[in-house]
Amino acid sequence: MPSHTHESLEIAQGLVRCPSVTPREGGALSYLQGLLEPAGFACHRLTFSAPGTPDVENLYAPAERVLTARHKTYQAYQRITLTSVPATKMTVYGDLLRAMLTDQLAFIAEPSHTRVITEDNGRESLRMSVRATQLASSSCA
Predict the structure, then answer these.
(1) What is the rounded CA–CA span in Å between residue 124 and residue 18?
(2) Can you tell me the distance from the alpha carbon of 27 to that of 20, in angstroms, rounded to the nearest whole number?
(3) 65-113 tens-digit pLDDT
(4) Residue 16 to residues 63, 66, 86: CA-CA distances in angstroms?
(5) Backbone angles phi, psi at 131, to 5 degrees
(6) pLDDT tens digit string along 14-57?
């Protein structure tokens, strides 16, 4: 496995471990800042506010970067914003479970119905959700 893939996986796992649900950053911004600053990014925390909603903190890392690709030079600016749906993981999992059961009931009622979710990918989804819950339960890296 290439090292950048391994590093990306480690970063994703580190983020999943953070109990970050908007508006709480849960350590995710600090985690990203800890990765970006040693790489030369000047990180800034920005708080966005709107009437009637909680403030949301964002991370802005505007380090100038020169990229070269296909013999062209580009200036790249980075901005990382953490957002989420206004639902808990359990709400999302519940919605997915209802969709799976609706699909399964359609198959039972009409065997020619092509199922969106098979037993195999249903089991794999469950395994992944259990693993995600385990990672989220551990402390933020």
Answers:
(1) 23
(2) 7
(3) 665 656 666 665 544 455 555 566 677 777 777 887 888 888 888 889 8
(4) 25, 30, 17
(5) -65, -40
(6) 888 888 777 788 888 899 889 888 887 778 787 877 788 888 88
